[in-house]
Amino acid sequence: MVNFSDGSSGNCTFKNKRGVWESAIPSSDLLIRRSDDALQYDCKTQDGREANGSIRSEVEGEKMIASVIFWDLGITDTITDKHRTYQGNIVITVPKVNKMQ
């Protein structure tokens, strides 16, 4: 699930070394290809506020042991990065609306 911190709607572009994905926000069906690098995002709310940042890639605990065993045997998972994951529920902080205008 991906949401903006204030509950607003908008769009985001997500990218890592495996590809680029665009999605309307909020979204519960965003599918991102796993990678060992951070997931970068550039977002814009419907009222024009922008937010960007990154979400770090993590190793799934139960898959870490299998990855180490395969690595010791000379077999690595670097092509698919199946042992990597990004956090499940993402809340993207957006600037507050400036009501002074």
| Cα shape | elongated
Report strand order across the widest sheet.
3-2-4-5
Which percent band covers the strand fraction?
Answer: 35-45%
Average pLDDT number: 81
Q: Structural class of the helices, strands and pairings? A: mainly beta
Helical residue percent band: 10-25%
Query: What order do the SSEs take from the amino end to the carboxyl end, as H and E?
Result: EEEEEEHEE
Distance between the termini: 33 Å
Query: Rg, please?
Result: 17 Å
Counting DSSP E segments of at least 2 residues, the number of strands comes to: 8
Biggest pleated-sheet summary = 4 strands, antiparallel
In total, the number of domains comes to 1
List keywords for this structure.
101 residues; single chain; mainly beta; four-stranded antiparallel β-sheet; 1 helix; 8 strands; 37% strand; two-stranded parallel ribbon
Q: What would you note in describing this structure?
A:
This protein is mainly beta and 101 residues long. The protein has one domain (2-92). Helix content is 12%, strand content 37%. The protein contains one helix and eight strands, in the order ββββββαββ. It has one helix at 61-72; strands spanning 2-4, 10-16, 19-25, 39-45, 50-55, 58-59, 84-85, 90-92. It has a four-stranded antiparallel beta sheet with strand order 3-2-4-5, with no helix packed on it. Mean pLDDT is 81; it is low at 67-78.
